[in-house]
Design brief:
Blueprint lengths: L5 E5 L2 E7 L4 E6 L4 E4 L4 H9 L3 H9 L5 E2 L1
Antiparallel strand pairs: 1-2, 2-3, 3-4, 4-5
Helix pairs in contact: 1-2
Pfam families: KTSC
Protein name: KTSC domain-containing protein
Length: about 70
């Protein structure tokens, strides 16, 4: 699955994208690591993508809440 990511370049996150049909949020970190979180709702994904503090939002609302695959 290929997800189009948009540049973020803030707080340790390089880019991120969301696929609404499969409910997958893909995040590329500044380290180069890419994670996909599954079963992420549209509202959570959109709030993350629009956040002025994406790493804080990720750690608070996504990191431990949604299944992860690399």
């Amino acid at each position: 699955m290929s997800i189009s990511r948009k540049p973020i370049n803030r707080g340790g996150i390089k880019s991120a994208g969301y696929d609404r049909a499969s409910r997958v949020l893909e995040i590329e970190f500044s380290s180069g690591k890419v994670l996909q979180h599954t079963n992420v709702g549209d509202e959570i994904a959109q709030r993350f993508l629009a956040s002025s503090s994406p790493m804080g939002y990720y750690q608070d609302k996504i990191e431990e809440e949604y299944p992860t695959r690399r």
